[in-house]
What we know:
This protein is of the alpha+beta class. Helix content is about 50%, strand content about 15%. The strands form five sheets. Strands 1, 2, 3, 4, 5 and 6 form a six-stranded mixed β-sheet that branches. A five-stranded mixed β-sheet has the order 12-16-14-15-13. Strands 18-19-17-20 form a four-stranded antiparallel β-sheet, with helices on one face. Strand 14 and strand 15 form a beta hairpin. One of its GO terms (cellular component) is plasma membrane.
Amino acid sequence: MTEAAIEKENKEIAKQYKQLLKISYRTLSSEDKKLIRSAFDLAVDAHKEQRRKSGEAYIFHPIAVAKIVASEIGLDATSIAAALLHDVVEDTDYTLNDIERLFGSTVARIVDGLTKIANISMSEDVSMQAENFRKMLLTLSEDVRVIIIKIADRLHNMQTMDSMPSHKQQKIASETLYIYAPLAHRIGLYNIKSELEDMGLKFTEPDVYADILGRIKESKEEQDAYIEAFNNVIKESLDAEDFKYEIKGRPKSIFSIRKKMLAQNVTFDEVYDKFAVRIIYESTPENEKFFAWKIYSIVTDHFRPNPIRLRDWISSPKSTGYEALHITVMGPKGRWVEVQIRSQRMNEIAEKGFAAHYKYKNKEKEEAGLESWLNKLQETLENSDLSAVDFVEEFKLNLYAKEIFVFSPKGDLYSLPKGATALDFAFHIHTEIGMHTRGTRVNGKLVPLSHELKSGDQVEVITSENSRPTSNWLNYATTGRARSKIKTSLKDEKKQIAEDGKEILKRKLKSLKINLDENTINQMVVYFKVKTSLDLFYRIGAGIIDNQKLKEFASSRSNAFISFFKNRIRKPDKPEDIHKDEITEKLDQLVFGKDEDKLDYKMANCCNPIPGDDVFGFVTVNEGIKVHKTNCPNAIQLQSNYSYRIMPAKWIDSTQREFKAILNISGIDTIGLVNEVTKVISGNLHIDMKSVHFDSNDGVFTGKIVVIVKNKTILNNLAENIRKINGIDKVTRV
């Protein structure tokens, strides 16, 4: 580089630094400025030899990230310093100890968290990538600023990604859409979330992005004219009340327009609410709420509101801290338009997320949302039994959820994701309450655990020491927290059955004169077509592999023909997998409806589902049930036009399946007989009683019992125990 170019670059660096101090959202003390200056000097020195892909000096990147942290997000001087230093430990000779010595432990801790994230290799393998996200989120718990600076870092990388090769652009963009945009949303950084999503779309679907962007620019004039017309109608009334306010139009992000076009299967021109009108008013804290509703009444005096679309986030703010009043009104030219009413304080919180809360004094209340979210996140992270992919899916469930507000019997207010069920509420209060839920009451009425809650419901949980999760609970729970706790509990239960199974197997093999050693286990894993030794023990413990099947295995061992294969089996390809500590599922059977019925079906050609996919059944006119993937291109059209012909469907493991059985009982009626029968059934933990019907006619007793059992052995034992009851004559299975 020529001297003139270097001179020019240095001037630009100095200019950027001055801007950084100027645009900081908070007032910086002289101490703060000193800290930022030292961080800046060290970063300039550390990165002096480095250049970015675009050819510019590397130092421009940390400065840009610090500017986003300072102005867009509004963090403190410590965070600005950490943002300037975020790549120093990773890319240069400076160590973490140097940072701690020069800037103190807080800055060092944040930089360390950022370095840990940077060192995660984002491989193509989904489960590896999921594992890395888990590690990344673990650094979150150390200091939430780590993730906020990381989001700023990602935003600047997305803004300057044009000089990268396209496969890199694709990868970074999809990663951004996968995890960084949802995180920004959850921390309340709505502007940054929108920009990350738009940039993500720009690199994953460039044609779509360019098309929508062009159309938005074309309709810009029309939009301005529309907002002008809207203003003119209410301006006079607002001025008459002496409000100090401004009215802005906010175009919807390109990503959200794209999402709407896909979800509703419409063209750009058919998307109705391409922008929202925002009224931002000045107010003292005590008048905020009063003014918001006053403006609401002025707007609805002039425009007819849609009563279903009123959202009051002022009385009960979102857990991200967001406050505003949203109404949808029939605006000029007969168009629905969303109006957002916010005070200046609320507007700052909406744009800066949690960082803006620090500026306002009511800190305890405001921080509660973030605190409780971080605590929940910590719980999920500590629950290491979840596989990484499951974890990321559960985590994302909690990121984007819209909220409802429900009350406990004492009147405490809880916020839950939209679509949450009574069972979700039980786990939301406390894991132990969730685990022992026996039933739930909503607004005083007993409801099923799968009952979907609505805002304003009062929910009471009935618990019992003997209740514990069953696999059906996964159909009733929607929140990440409840689902992960239920899955862990079911895994623990299965492991317990497997441990018992191992002991049973030892005894049974002994009587067949076979030793239970590694060799035998490997042979049995192959013979019974299971994946791991734990699968084998579980199936023994649950009675799926019974005495008869074990005898068949024993005789197959002594068969000369098999012994030829036995030597081949001795060294299975991957013996290390056989001793994995998990019980796998072989999703091999499709069942339909609430009762999980086996029905005839055909796979749809448009999406070709495979075992394990999320699917639904569609009842066709001539071809019976067709099975489609939930994300099939035709799914939305079928579900909206023919919802009455849609059947819920899911894949199950037929070898682990519980099945329904009906027993008919007859005998001589004696006092206490019904009590004896129900005692026998409820005394067996592996049996779930669905319905019971007893009749007594002139001293003769008949009964019909419907039970859900895991296998035939359990059912036979049950029938045998009922026969032993005094007075019972016959027990037959229908």
